[in-house]
Amino acid sequence: MSDIVIACPHCKSLNKLPKKDEYKKAVCGVCKGNLLENKAISVDSYDEFQKIVNSVTVPVIIDFWAEWCGPCQMFAPIFNKVAGSFPLQAQFIKVNTDKNQQAAMQFGIRSIPTIVALKDGVEIDRAMGALDEFSFSMWVDKIVES
Length: 146
Hints:
GO terms for molecular function: protein-disulfide reductase activity. Belongs to the thioredoxin family. There is one protein chain. By secondary structure, the chain is an alpha/beta fold. The protein has a single domain (38-145), classed as Glutaredoxin, CATH 3.40.30. It has four helices and seven strands, in the order βββαβαβαββα. The protein has a five-stranded mixed β-sheet with strand order 3-5-4-6-7. Strands 1-2 form a two-stranded antiparallel sheet.
């Protein structure tokens, strides 16, 4: 059985766990935070962004957004709510395009919000615009199952 690597949603430390179909408990080795409490991680530095997307072994779902963007603000609670539905199945990160322009340029972000899905550091899908909760959840489910 292989391991998974996931970033802690509380302290951003990388954690290696045995891959299982179901987890009753998963605790960060650094901060002791609950890894099953999946929530979006804000990533403002490019180095931190690279560390997470290149190390995490589950699909990474990235929300490229900005504070001044109305649709981004409307989508933010949906992104966070859906993240909670996929503990240890996907890593959800938020990239503020004003603070992390290098990451936005790397993925050719031209409009926001743009949601990008990565698997093994490679883009496998993207969605543009603020999705409703059902559509976004179905989109993530398709990514996780692929």
